[in-house]
Design goal:
It is built from three helices and five strands, in the order βββββααα. With 87 residues, it is an alpha+beta fold.
Length: 87
């Protein structure tokens, strides 16, 4: 009885839905404290997953879910840059 390959799932910090890891965008905080979008999903750093939509990013910022996940306060200029990169 062979089973299929397991597909990793992650929870979106904006809407709270469990989705396939490949469908979500990873936002990371590096050891230097830089917050950026990880397009490859393999960079080192503390990560948080968000749906690829402005609505989920807005919910994550408003509820401070992104700050809790990355364990660092996020300045306004980084929030604006993330919003631009998500569109």
């Amino acid at each position: 009885m062979a089973t299929g390959k397991k597909i990793p799932k992650r929870k979106c910090i904006g809407c709270g839905e469990m989705k396939n890891k490949s469908d979500l965008v990873r936002v990371i905080r590096t050891e230097e404290g830089v917050i950026e979008i990880d397009g490859t999903g393999r960079k080192n750093g503390r990560g948080a997953y968000i749906c690829n939509s402005k609505e989920c990013l807005a919910k994550a910022i408003k509820s401070k879910g992104l700050e809790r996940s990355l364990k660092v306060p996020i300045p306004d200029e980084i929030k604006e840059r993330l919003t631009e990169e998500m569109s």
